[in-house]
Design brief:
This protein is α/β, with parallel strands linked by helices. A nine-stranded mixed β-sheet has the order 3-4-2-1-5-6-7-11-8, with helices on both faces. Helices cover 25% and strands 24% of the residues. Helix 1 (14-23) packs across helix 4. The longest helix has 17 residues, at 139-155. The protein is built from six helices and eleven strands. Bound molecules: manganese (II) ion. Manganese (II) ion binds next to strand 5.
């Protein structure tokens, strides 16, 4: 099996390195990932500057892949259109340092990379490790768990082009209670900005660290993660509201 591995934390991120080690026994792994961290860059792509690429070797001086001075979505696009000799059977994005459940799916560069793969009708899985910062993440343990989930997904024989979002619960909750297939949470999140003054007397705002969903919908990814379950959510990139569309079609729309 040919696997394209990417992320949004950057090619040298410990989560990607740990997941690569776990995936090497599943197939041939080529990494195409951002040269620097691109978290929360969503589905941004680079139009106005070149995508500089650099070949990268692993610790054993074996070919690891390419570092790209661009966004996660750039990496997958460039990998599929230009860099890879053979098309991959599977695209994995992660292991992200931090969860990507609920509406974070839309901010996430990790998930965007997987979505970009699905645009090309490749089966793609985003994998994120929820963390209770500032507690350090055990990426090796996270990657081992991620591999188990990836194996379960592959055993289910997903149709080509399937897109999945996997979140691992906080490690301080102990051994995961199980794997749950759930929708993403869409209950309201709370957030705030910290207002301050910079050394030159200018007012600035900085997104605060209290971001979260106080009351997630029951039977959603956020809810199950808080209870200590691994969550698996199938995604699609068609944002059309089909129920609304059917309702609107009942009306005659004229200009
Ligand atoms: Mn990230």
């Amino acid at each position: 099996m040919k696997i394209l591995l990417t992320n949004d934390d950057g090619i040298y991120a410990p989560g990607l390195q740990a997941l690569r080690r776990e995936l090497l026994s599943l197939g041939e792994v080529v990494v195409v990932a951002p040269a620097t961290e691109q978290s929360a860059s969503g589905h941004s792509v680079t139009l106005l500057t070149p995508l500089i690429v650099q070949e990268v070797l692993d610790d054993e001086k074996k070919f690891l892949g390419w570092a790209v001075e661009g966004r996660p979505a750039d990496c997958v696009k460039l990998a599929l259109v230009e860099l890879l000799k053979d098309p991959p059977d599977l695209i994995i994005s992660g292991l992200n340092a931090g969860g990507n459940a609920g509406i974070n799916v839309l901010y996430s560069g990790t998930v965007a990379a997987a979505i970009e793969g699905a645009f090309f009708r490749k089966t793609a899985i985003a994998v994120s490790q929820t963390s209770g910062r500032p507690n350090p993440i055990d990426f090796q343990a996270g990657a081992k768990l991620a591999r188990r989930v990836i194996d379960r997904i592959l055993e289910s024989e997903p149709s080509t082009g399937s897109l999945f979002n996997v979140n691992l619960p906080k490690q301080e909750l102990g051994e995961p209670k199980g794997l749950k297939v759930l929708p993403q949470n869409v209950a309201v999140y709370v957030e705030s900005f910290v207002k301050n003054t910079d050394p030159r007397g200018r007012t600035y705002y900085w997104l605060g660290n209290d971001y979260g969903c106080p009351v997630p919908h029951p039977h959603s990814d956020e809810d199950a993660l808080a209870e200590g379950f691994v969550t698996l959510t199938p995604l699609q990139f068609d944002l059309t509201d089909h129920a609304k569309l059917a309702e609107m079609k009942k009306r005659t729309w004229e200009l």
